[in-house]
Specification:
Strand content: 5-15%
Number of helices: 9
Largest sheet: 6 strands, parallel
Distance between the termini: 11 Å
CATH topology of the largest domain: Rossmann fold
Helix content: 40-55%
Radius of gyration: 16 Å
Shape: globular
Length: about 220
């Protein structure tokens, strides 16, 4: 690949252990609006944008009055009930510190909304290391479409061949691949190696990548 100069960072499931929390917030918001959905039906869709998740699991458009009510309530529940109890994934800040030490430019590329993004960055301490942020509010289409990754890549002002993305879901992999950005995947988001097929490499979590960093794409 040549020397890597920039990194695009997913947040949920990659730097913050939040995928189950997002699932529970969706389920509660749906239930309050008369829609009962099993945990696994939602969990397997975490990582794609909410505008895609909601109609996929319920058939309700996010732009409909009911869809807007569910999405708004989901955000409220997540921010109030779940986010205060979240923790970074193992080794998240240590990895970011090492990447910064190596002179790499880092930008966030996430399906989270702007309102959720800043507190998530504080949980992971990524706010101390990233140079810019791109969220679902900065892209016309959410993951797994490539728009968010393309926006993050543009903010780095680097060719895709000099950038690696860190993610944890099949939707990260599809989004990065469609943007021609190589991606390293983490298992800590809850997906199997089979689900993460197409990643440049797969590690348990940020700590695992940090341990093997001199044998990785960052060497």
């Amino acid at each position: 690949m040549g020397a890597i100069r920039g990194v695009i960072l997913d947040i949920d499931g990659t730097l913050v252990d939040s995928n189950d929390a997002h699932t529970h917030a969706w389920i509660k918001a749906m239930a309050e609006n008369g829609v009962k959905v099993p945990f696994e039906a939602v969990r397997k869709l975490i990582g794609m944008g909410g505008d895609k998740l909601l109609p996929t699991v319920t058939g309700i458009s996010e732009e409909s009055p009911r869809g807007k009510a569910i999405s708004k309530r989901r955000k409220e529940i997540f921010l109030r009930e779940y986010l205060p109890n979240l923790f970074p994934t193992p080794g998240a800040e240590d990895l970011l510190r090492e990447l910064k030490k190596r002179g790499l430019k880092m930008v966030v590329g996430t399906s989270a909304t702007t309102e959720e993004l800043e507190p998530l960055l504080r949980v992971s301490r990524a706010d101390q290391y990233v140079e810019s942020r791109t969220s679902s509010d900065d892209a016309e289409r959410s993951k797994p479409d490539p728009d968010i990754v393309q926006a993050a890549l543009a903010s780095l002002d680097l060719p895709a061949t000099k950038v690696v993305m860190l993610g944890d879901t099949p939707y990260d992999i599809e989004s990065a691949t469609r943007a021609s950005v190589p991606i390293i995947a983490f298992r800590c988001g809850g997906w199997s190696d089979r689900d993460l097929h197409g990643a440049l490499a797969i590690y348990d979590n940020p700590a695992h990548l940090l341990h093997d960093i001199d044998d990785s794409a960052f060497a």
